[in-house]
Amino acid sequence: MADIHLETLRKLRDVLVEQRRTAANEAARLIRSDPQAGFEKIAAVLDFQSQIEGLDRVILDERDMADNTTQVGEMFGSD
Asked: Domain range holding 49?
C-alpha cells in the first residue's frame, strides 16, 4: 500500500514540475514585453518550487514510515 501511495505522490510531483517549467517558459517570454505579467509568472514558478519541495519532504516522510514499519515487522516476525 505504501508503494502505491509513494507512486501517487511522485506523479503529483511530476505534474508540479511540468507546471513550473511551463510557467518559467511563459515568464521568459513575457518579461520584456509585459514585465508585470512576467513577474507574476516568476512568482508562480517560485510557488510551484515551494510545493515541489513540500512534496519532496512528504515523499521522504512516507518512505521513512514505510521503512520503519518494515523494520518493526521484521523485529516481531510479521510481514
From this structure: 2-75
Which positions ≥6 away from 26 have C-beta within 8 Å? 41
Cell, residue 31: 518579461
| Cut 0.90: pTM above it | no
What are 18-52's pLDDT values in tens digits?
999 999 999 999 999 999 999 999 999 999 999 99
Total domains in the chain come to: 1
- Find where cell 509585459 sits: 34
Q: Is the dihedral of CA 21, 23, 24, 25 positive or negative?
A: positive
Cell numbers 514585453 correspond to 33
